[in-house]
Amino acid sequence: MESQGKINAQQIALNNPIILSEILKQSSAPLKNCRLVSHFWNKVVLSLPNTRLVLNLNSKDEYEKDPFPFFELCYTLDDRLAKRISAHTDPISRDVTYAFSAKLMHLGLRFSDRIQILDMRIYFEHGLKPIFQVLKNSCPNLKQLRIRCGYRVDKHGVIPDGEVPLPQKPNLTVFELRSTTGTPSPTLTTFTQLVVNASPNLRKVTLPLGFYPDLETLKFIDSLTLEVDSFRQLDVALTDFKPSDLTRMVGQVGGQLVHLAFCYFYADGRYGASNDRDLNNSTQSGFHLPEKMSKLRTFKNDMVDIVHHADLWEDVKGMPAMEMLKLGKISKRSKSVDTILKNRPETERISTSVTDLRIHELHDPGLLEGFKTAFPNLKTLWVDNKEAGMKLGVVLKACMGWSGLNHLHIRLPTYAKKTWDIIKPLLDSMELYKEAEMYVFKDVLVAMKGMEKVVIHGLHFGDKSRENILDVLSSNGMPVSKFKMVHE
User: Fold this and answer.
1) Domain extent for 46
2) Structural domain total, the chain
3) CA atoms within 13 A on the CB side of 336
4) Which of 29, 284, 295, 363 is a good FRET partner for 253, with 20 to 30 A between their CA atoms?
């Protein structure tokens, strides 16, 4: 038993600023709570170079409170808490936006040199005015700028002083603009170009489809993403897609890109097809990627039914370093993914560098067979067929004989009516598991022992079956956490 007052090793470590700093850098450490432990801990938290603490200008009763306490708080606020600022305007009333403007501009003036990250959400375009003013008059050390614009567009969003250049932001490396306002407005378009012009060291840029700023000055960009979300109508997305403008913009930075993505996503962050309209994919769009994208490692096109390639496979050949390729669509009825895959040369190697292939909504499983030739070094295959109606056994059969494949992710459309409808295809495809004599489900589990992770959705077990499966896992030294089929 330790004598009273004796300090153990844990206490020594937690009182060492170097060790404590490393602990608090972990994402699992709730910094807001850690600040309350002691003055010493608070000091260490505030000294972290990349703090996750956010100064939120909004509160639950924001629109009922007197704003005076906020301004009073700023006189006593430790300036290190102003590194990252988050705020949003009222989604209903334009008038309340004035409080948002006053607070943001006050922080910009008072903590100008400290602000590194701005996370803004505005529901009326005139909410851009205070953001523009803050960028114009303060925040010389800004590193990240994220803005999400709501779907309410007004006529009061004109940026003051026309197109007067913003001061240079040499530390700004991340610029993300997300918009549900439909067709790009002149205000947002102008604002986007002004930010790009002022930020020559941008590395990561995210824009809505339909925004095609001049990126000629960006010599260090390595990530470009164009998005469409579920709030924007398909007609708007089709109108905003301008192949020649997109070809020009990507061509300006193609030689530097490591990541390129055309993404569709739901407002809550889920990705996937949602629209039931038929799309005419019979004509090529004229969109071309640069002939050579030597650094590109990740290429995603989640909306091939909108962003058509003049020749996808020729584009892919110009990506000698590409490791991950993802293809998907917006319209549920569209078979554009199948059309693209059918146009692939049957006996030609498309890429030896691709190790991760992800396909959303493939209707013809026979097309999988050709991937063994096209991508001979593939290690990971994702086939997301929630809507296409492909059966598990058909997919597994197509994958048999793929010697390098060690990660297979399959999403099927519905729950199997019988558990045997899932078990039998797994047993019939024993070649995938490189094991022999698999006859029952327990043997299938054991055969999967060497896999890093196994995920099977839609299986339901009774108490006794669940208990038996857990016993098999335990007796074979197989951690339950690796098998996302049953839960303790």
Assistant:
1) 23-53
2) 1
3) 28
4) 284
